[in-house]
Design goal:
Helices cover about 10% and strands about 60% of the residues. It is mainly β and about 190 residues long. It has one domain: Porin (Beta Barrel).
Length: about 190
C-alpha cells in the first residue's frame, strides 16, 4: 500500500470515528433538568440512659454544571441530657429549628468547598431536681454561617459525602459550638 492510499484510509477511518462519537453526544438541555437534582442532609438518632438526640435536617440541591451546585434545607435538632453527677442534679432540653441555603464549588471533580448560611430558632429548659426553680431559655433566632470542605465519593445512584465544617459567626447559642465538626452522609442523585 502506498503512502497516499494509507493517508486516505487513515483520514476516512478518523472521519467515521469522529462522526460516530458526535452522534453519541447529547445536545445540552436548556432550562430546568430534574436529573441534576440531588437529595441529602443529616439524620441522626441517639438514645441513652441519660441522653436523647434527634436530628432531622433534609436538603435538596441542584447541580448547575460540573463546578457549581446550590440548594436549601430545613433543620430540626432536639437534645436532652440528664446531669446525674452534678450538684444540683438537673436535666437540659434544647431544640433548634431553622432554614438553610448552601452553595458548593467543585474545583476538582469530587472535592468541594461549601458555604451554608442558616437562620435557626433555638429554645431550651433546665429542670432541677433539688427544688430549684426551672430555668427557661427564651426562644431566640440564631444565625450561623458554616464554611467547609468535603468530598463526594460516587456510589450507586449518588455519592457518599464526607465534610468538615465550622461556624464562622460563633453566635451565642449556636447549635455548632466553637469547634470544627464532621458530617458523613449520602446524596441521592449527584
Amino acid at each position: 500500500m502506498n503512502r497516499k492510499a494509507l493517508l486516505i484510509a487513515i483520514t476516512l477511518l478518523t472521519t467515521l470515528h469522529l462522526t460516530t462519537l458526535a452522534q453519541d453526544e447529547e445536545e445540552p438541555r436548556k432550562g430546568f433538568d430534574k436529573s441534576k437534582l440531588f437529595f441529602g442532609g443529616n439524620f441522626g438518632l441517639g438514645f441513652g440512659s441519660n441522653s436523647t438526640l434527634v436530628n432531622v435536617s433534609p436538603q435538596i440541591g441542584y447541580r448547575f454544571n460540573p463546578y457549581l451546585a446550590a440548594g436549601a434545607g430545613v433543620n430540626f435538632i432536639y437534645s436532652s441530657y440528664r446531669y446525674r453527677y452534678y450538684v444540683p442534679e438537673y436535666k437540659s432540653n434544647y431544640g433548634v429549628a431553622g432554614l438553610n441555603i448552601f452553595g458548593r464549588v467543585y474545583p476538582i471533580e469530587y472535592l468541594f468547598l461549601q458555604v451554608q448560611p442558616e437562620l435557626n430558632y433555638s429554645w431550651g429548659k433546665f429542670k432541677f431536681y433539688d427544688g430549684t426553680p426551672d430555668l427557661k431559655l427564651d426562644g431566640k433566632i440564631v444565625p450561623s454561617l458554616l464554611g467547609g470542605a468535603g468530598a463526594a465519593i460516587p456510589a450507586g445512584r449518588g455519592a457518599f459525602i464526607i465534610m468538615i465544617q465550622y461556624d464562622l459567626l460563633q453566635e451565642d447559642r449556636s447549635p455548632y459550638g466553637n469547634r470544627a465538626f464532621y458530617n458523613f452522609g449520602y446524596n441521592i442523585g449527584f
